[in-house]
Hints:
- 21% of the residues lie in helices and 44% in strands.
- With 140 residues, the chain is α+β, with helices and mostly antiparallel strands.
- It has a single domain, classed as Thrombin, subunit H.
- A six-stranded antiparallel barrel has the order 1-2-3-6-5-4.
- Strand 4 and strand 5 form a beta hairpin.
Amino acid sequence: MDDRRASKRYDKPLSVEFGLIGEKASLSNRTSFQGFIEDISLGGLRLQLKERYGKLYKMKLQGKQVKLAIPLPQFNYTAYALGEIQWSNDFQEHAEHVITMGIKFIDLSPTDCQYLENYMGSSKGDHNLLWELWNKEVKP
């Protein structure tokens, strides 16, 4: 399979809040939604949400712009981004509507970019830190 992405994707789940720009009237005054990131890169992310009332279900989402708030609790920081939905899929699962979408970042500040980059590399850093502690404290 040919991967056309400019940046490597990381399977680093995170909760995220997002809102569709310019869709207030068609969403009955609901302006934001909660979902979780399935994978993320410096170029964008894949997001999934479950929605009981189906406000976004079967809506044409491709090409819509979104505002994203990505909390990074280990840094006590929230990254903000403007993105554009590149694709979306939806299906029914029991009483909930499940929507998965690919979002490309179109505006991400250098500071937010740095925090996201640190987050994406953090598991390797945590792993190395654990081995360093093992070598110092446990290993003779």
